[in-house]
Structure to design on (417 residues):
C-alpha cells in the first residue's frame, strides 16, 4: 500500500514519527514537498542515527496548491495510485483533504480543514454554533490586505473588543507575529510592522484571554473520537506567546473537555489527530485555536511514549480507512513534562549539551538539540528560538520535575552576539 505525504519544511513529526510508523506498517511512501533536498538530508540523518524509514520517494511539488498536488500524484501513473493522502502541516490540511477527496480516499472534510486553518473563519463558525455547541465566542475583527490599520481602533470599538487585545496573522503558526497590544496606538503599530514582514497577509485582532492555557489532544476516525490527554502550557511573558513548558495533566479537566469536544464536533473536526488550545476561565473553555494535526515540537513523540499508544500508526491506519479500536489501551498513570530551552538573544550558539537519553529513579529524560553549535540566528520571538527540548517521562511528577531542574542546572547554553 502507498501513502502520499504532503510536507513543507522537515519536522520531527514526519521524520521521527510518521515515516518510521509507515515503515512498521509496511507502507511505501511518496513524500511531496517544496523542499525535497531538505527532506532527503533529514532522512539521511535519521538513518545515520539508527532510525528506520520506509521505501521512500521524495518528489518536488508546489504542495500549497491542491491542483498541483492532484496533478503531481496523477502523473505518477496507476502503479503509484495512493491508498492514503495526509499531512501533518498546519498549512497543508485543506490541500491534503481535497486531494484525498479527489482520489476517493478517506480524509478530513476540506471545509473543516479550512475553517480551522483560517482563524477568522474559525471565529465565525464558532459564533454561528453558539449555544448549540456550548461555544463561548471570542470577539474578533479581521483586517484584510486592503483594509487600513488606522481604521482598526474604531472597528474594535464597534465590536466591543477591549484592550489589551491580540493581533496575529489570520493563517499563521508557531506564535509567529502574534503580539499583545496594550492600546490603540500599539495595535496600529504592530499591524504595520507585521504587514512590513508579511506583505498581503490578512490579520485577526481578538480578545486577550487571561487564564491558564490548556490543550486537548484528540484522535478520531470520523465516528469514534478519543481524548488522548490534556497539557497545561506555560508561555513566555507578554507581549509574545512562546510555549516554554508543557505538563501532561493526570486527567483531562472537566467540564472543559466536554465543551471543547462539542465545539470540535460543531466544526466537523474528528478525523485523525487534532491539537486544540484553549484558556480555562472558571467553568468556561474558550478556544484559542484548533490545529487539525498532531501536536508538534516532539510533544507527539513524547505523548505516544508515555501513553504506550502507537499514535502515528493509528493516524496512518485511519487515513487508510481502518476504524480505531474502541479502547486505545493507553497507560493511565504516565506523567510527562516537556521543557524548551529558548534563546534570550540573537547570535551564534557557541556551547550547548549534546543529545542524551538517561533513566534514573523511574524517570526517563531525553534531551535533543534543536540548533547546531556554530549556527547564528536572530531572535525571532517564536519557537524558532528553541535551542533544545527536554522530554521527561515517568509515573511520579515530583521526580520528573526534580530530574528536569537538575538537568537544566547542570547544563550551559552560551550565545555570542
Amino acid at each position: 500500500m502507498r501513502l502520499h505525504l504532503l510536507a513543507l519544511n522537515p519536522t520531527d513529526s514526519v521524520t521521527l514519527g510518521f515515516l518510521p510508523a509507515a515503515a512498521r506498517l509496511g507502507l511505501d511512501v511518496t513524500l511531496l514537498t517544496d523542499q525535497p533536498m531538505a527532506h532527503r538530508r533529514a532522512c539521511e540523518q535519521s538513518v545515520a542515527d539508527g532510525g528506520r524509514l520506509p521505501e521512500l520517494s521524495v518528489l518536488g511539488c508546489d504542495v500549497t496548491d491542491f491542483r498541483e498536488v492532484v496533478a503531481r500524484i496523477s502523473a505518477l501513473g496507476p502503479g503509484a495510485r495512493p491508498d492514503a493522502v495526509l499531512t501533518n502541516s498546519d498549512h497543508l490540511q485543506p490541500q491534503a483533504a481535497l486531494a484525498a477527496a479527489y482520489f476517493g480516499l478517506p480524509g478530513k472534510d476540506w471545509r473543516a480543514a479550512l475553517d480551522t486553518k483560517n482563524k477568522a473563519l474559525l471565529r465565525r463558525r464558532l459564533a454561528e454554533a453558539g449555544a448549540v455547541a456550548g461555544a463561548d465566542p471570542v470577539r474578533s475583527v479581521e483586517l484584510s490586505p486592503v483594509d487600513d490599520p488606522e481604521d482598526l481602533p474604531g472597528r474594535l470599538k464597534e465590536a466591543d473588543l477591549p484592550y489589551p487585545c491580540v493581533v496575529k496573522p489570520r493563517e499563521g503558526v508557531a506564535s509567529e507575529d502574534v503580539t499583545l497590544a496594550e492600546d490603540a496606538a500599539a495595535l496600529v503599530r504592530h499591524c504595520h510592522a507585521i504587514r512590513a514582514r508579511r506583505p498581503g497577509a490578512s490579520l485577526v485582532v481578538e480578545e486577550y484571554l487571561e487564564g491558564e492555557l490548556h490543550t486537548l489532544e484528540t484522535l478520531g476516525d470520523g465516528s469514534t473520537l478519543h481524548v488522548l490527554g490534556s497539557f497545561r502550557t506555560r508561555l513566555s511573558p507578554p507581549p509574545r506567546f512562546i510555549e516554554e513548558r508543557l505538563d501532561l495533566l493526570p486527567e483531562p479537566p472537566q467540564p472543559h473537555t466536554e465543551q471543547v469536544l462539542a465545539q470540535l464536533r460543531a466544526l466537523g473536526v474528528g478525523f485523525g489527530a487534532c491539537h486544540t488550545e484553549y484558556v480555562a476561565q472558571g467553568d468556561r473553555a474558550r478556544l484559542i485555536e484548533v490545529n487539525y494535526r498532531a501536536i508538534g515540537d516532539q510533544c507527539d513523540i513524547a505523548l505516544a511514549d508515555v501513553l504506550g499508544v502507537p499514535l502515528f500508526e493509528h493516524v496512518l491506519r485511519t487515513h487508510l480507512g481502518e476504524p480505531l479500536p474502541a479502547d486505545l489501551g493507553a497507560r493511565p498513570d504516565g506523567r510527562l513534562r516537556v521543557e524548551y530551552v529558548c534563546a534570550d538573544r540573537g547570535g551564534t550558539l557557541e556551547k550547548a549539551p549534546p543529545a542524551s537519553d538517561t533513566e534514573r529513579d523511574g524517570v526517563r529524560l531525553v534531551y535533543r538539540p534543536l540548533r547546531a553549535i556554530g549556527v547564528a540566528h536572530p531572535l525571532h520571538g517564536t519557537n524558532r528560538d528553541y535551542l533544545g527540548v527536554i522530554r521527561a517521562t515517568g509515573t511520579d511528577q515530583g521526580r520528573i520535575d526534580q530530574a528536569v531542574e537538575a538537568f537544566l542546572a547542570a547544563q550551559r547554553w552560551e550565545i555570542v552576539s
Remarks:
- The chain has twelve helices and 21 strands.
- The chain has a mean pLDDT of 94.
- The two ends are 50 Å apart (CA to CA).
- Residues 162 and 207 are 7 Å apart (CA to CA).
